[in-house]
Amino acid sequence: MQQGIMELMWRSSHVSGGNAHYVEALYEQYLDDPSAVPDEWRQYFDQLPRPEGGARHDVPLEPIREQFYQLGRQRRTTQAAAASDENKKQVKVLQLINAYRFRGHQKADIDPLGLRDPKPIPDLDLSFHQLSKADLDTEFQTGSFFLGVDKAPLKVIVNALEQTYCRSIGCEIMHIVDTEEKRWLQQRFESVCSAPEFSPDVRKHVLERLTAAEGLESYLASKYPGTKRFGLEGGEAFIPMMDELIQRAGGYGTKEVVIGMAHRGRLNLLVNILGKNPSDLIDEFDGKKVIERGSGDVKYHQGFSSNVMTPGGEVHLALSFNPSHLEIVAPVVEGSVRARQDRRNDPVGNKVLPINVHGDAAFAGQGVVMETFQMSQTRAYKTGGTVHIVINNQVGFTTSHPEDSRSTEYCTDIAKMVQAPIFHVNGDDPDAVLHVTQVALDYRQQFHHDVVIDLVCYRRRGHNEADEPSGTQPMMYSKIREHPSSRARYIERLIGEGLLGDDDAKAMMEKYRDDLMAGNHVANALVQKPNKSLFVDWTPYLGHEWTGHADTTVDMKLLQRLAGKMCEVPDGVEVQRQVAKIYEDRRKMQAGGLAANWGFAETLAYATLLDEGHPVRITGQDVGRGTFSHRHAVVHNQKDGSAYVPLQYMADGQPRFTIHDSFLSEEAVLAFEYGYSTTAPNDLVVWEAQFGDFFNGAQVVVDQFISSGETKWERLCGLAMLLPHGYEGQGPEHSSARLERFLQMCAEHNMQVCVPTTPAQIFHLLRRQVIRPLRKPLVVMTPKSLLRHKSAISSLEELANGRFQMVLPDQGKLEAGKVERIILCAGKVYYDLANWREENTREDTAILRIEQLYPFPKEELLEAIKDYTNVTEVVWCQEEPLNQGAWYSSQHHMRAVADMLRDGLGGKLKFAGRPASAAPAAGYMSVHTEQQRQLVEDAFNL
């Protein structure tokens, strides 16, 4: 028993354990003379049993040692309990700090109108963390909180957290996985409690920009009351925000800023930031025609470009033209930015900055927003991070309640999918707006990821100026009517701080009004004689009338050399067996041992363009291989999975050859490529649909940009769309690329619609697209079964010395005088018709292919049929149903040409094809086969 107690004493506190012998000696000394030991020991020993009579040597030490042990244990227990309580509270304080970081934004004062329904946030209460007011004066470690001190009273910590996360800025950053990014953002906000001190000059400049924003709206409201303009009233802080973004970006060395803009505030941005002359805007309000050709567009869709001076030098600004389809401009901007970055050899994105401005309801509601975020870090579409600004009116495009606009807490929640930081800021606090603007741009420049600023404001007027919003939002608009403007509130604050005199603000407004009425530019730092080298020179491509021809010939020796080079695969790259066979066949085609097939001719077209100095860019969901395995421009090493692209190694210093399989999107991707092509006139830009019908997922891009961009905005575009199209019995969805839709949109030579049927045709068609100085969108119905059809071949001579033929004449050996019937067709059906004619030995029928359906080649078609003077019947044969394909849109052209051959012949034009159908094709192979047989026979026997 004694030994056990000694062991316990040995392991316990300073009154036992290794000090036992010393303590026993002290105790013996105490028994002799209590005053001989220190007071603290005397207090211990006084509590022990005293010897009753007898000498001190008669006192048994074992019980005393036991008493020492018990006393030590009590003391240790008391100390440990105190330490444990303190440690627990320290942990709770750190948890409280984290709670503010996670949920402080939900308590933040970000709504200028105070309409936000505050919900209790228990995580931010002291009691939730087992803390109380009694702990407010207790000092705690601040942990990772950037307070500037390691330890502070709880009340100081809480006050700093409230200032940082619960005032005019609500930060959502804790969803970011990257620790470095998250810590960087925490430091930027916490170190200044989200309220840095700006100099008086900076704040007066902010007021001047607020004055400009409010001044333009009030001027237009008085001059054109009730006229639709989508004014910025209620969101005026957007103008100083944009001013700061551009100036700060220039300080970083940015050379170009491309902006996608919502309708609301667009006119204000044009005049006060980009420097559009107010007199030009007034002309538009007065309804004057401002472009010579085309339809033009409403003023709040217009784009603009200018140069401004910044601390880092001259910066080119480009505002994209924008249709009413809301968010669709966002990926267009990204494409334009990527083209500019490629031109500047800027893969990181330091020299060109994209800014996309959104409306709150559109940001939450439009699927293309998600698609644009999803592409932001992919190889084909990254632009080094985008600054997104949401002008958050807190009400939808009509006057709907947020409950009807989204299912998420914030309209910006979609941005969390790419871990973009989100800064909600009260639009009535210009200093806070300035702070988040600076942090947002610095973050983008530091990490090259997207960032979102949610400018929470309001809409003083209705959806447009003729709208009365109080009919559906009475409570909101009763508050708005009584709510002073952001400028008025800021003036009051500056006067209260002694930074502004009573008359200074009035003089500022009067000066702005005077400049506006005089037609002077009112944008700060506008460069009157811009440096033209900062932007794309479109001069060589302007003013060209339509021509269908171009010299696309290539010297035979050069052609063969390039063909050989594009088939070279270095040692160490192990090629998959079937791919190796494709490359071996191409080498035979290069040598003339095999006729050229589609994949060889198409790839060789790219090689020749690269050789002539034209960059080539191809994207789509399966473009590296080609959906039908015909291209194989990308070779995958079977050893390690690495990719090798022969066309990127044709020659030293060659132009870019970019080929990327896209993510599974059509809308954003096609919009991106449109934006790219409008900024890269010297490039061949190609988007290929995996199946032709997939383009309908991007129909809005075709409608709003590709088909009408030139006539609305005078924006040229040379984008090529390859849409696999053909009736192979694969069901309704993958048979038709909806040729009829494109032809219906064709007018004023706005685009080209072609259906090439030979390798030589696609070779020269792709080359023509870039070699001609004319820039028009190209829609190509590319084949599927013809990619390997035994008859769909061409010779090297046809590639070297030919050209794209808009009409291919009959390939048979017919006597023109014996021909009584002409069959006109386009696409794969030609080969079915030719086979039937050969099998049935029909010598009275000529078959002509119209390879370009728009612009319709009337002269070329007449030339192809002029020798058939005995023709009595003309038939148009198509695989598509009667109500689809080219029939309805093109028959008047064919009739006109037939009448030129013989008067009245056009009136006899007949149709051979599938019956009218709601679906594009039959879903059963047996039905498809019978329909195909019938339409071919009808072409000959109607």
From TrEMBL:
It holds the Pfam family 2-oxogl_dehyd_N. Keywords: Glycolysis, Oxidoreductase, Thiamine pyrophosphate. Its EC number is 1.2.4.2. It is an enzyme of class 1 (oxidoreductase). Its cofactor is thiamine diphosphate. The keyword Oxidoreductase applies. GO terms for biological process: glycolytic process; tricarboxylic acid cycle. Residues 596-789 form the Transketolase-like pyrimidine-binding domain. One of its GO terms (molecular function) is oxoglutarate dehydrogenase (succinyl-transferring) activity. GO terms for cellular component: cytosol; oxoglutarate dehydrogenase complex. It catalyses: N(6)-[(R)-lipoyl]-L-lysyl-[protein] + 2-oxoglutarate + H(+) = N(6)-[(R)-S(8)-succinyldihydrolipoyl]-L-lysyl-[protein] + CO2. E1 component of the 2-oxoglutarate dehydrogenase (OGDH) complex which catalyzes the decarboxylation of 2-oxoglutarate, the first step in the conversion of 2-oxoglutarate to succinyl-CoA and CO(2). Homodimer. Part of the 2-oxoglutarate dehydrogenase (OGDH) complex composed of E1 (2-oxoglutarate dehydrogenase), E2 (dihydrolipoamide succinyltransferase) and E3 (dihydrolipoamide dehydrogenase); the complex contains multiple copies of the three enzymatic components (E1, E2 and E3). Belongs to the alpha-ketoglutarate dehydrogenase family. This is 2-oxoglutarate dehydrogenase E1 component. The gene is sucA.
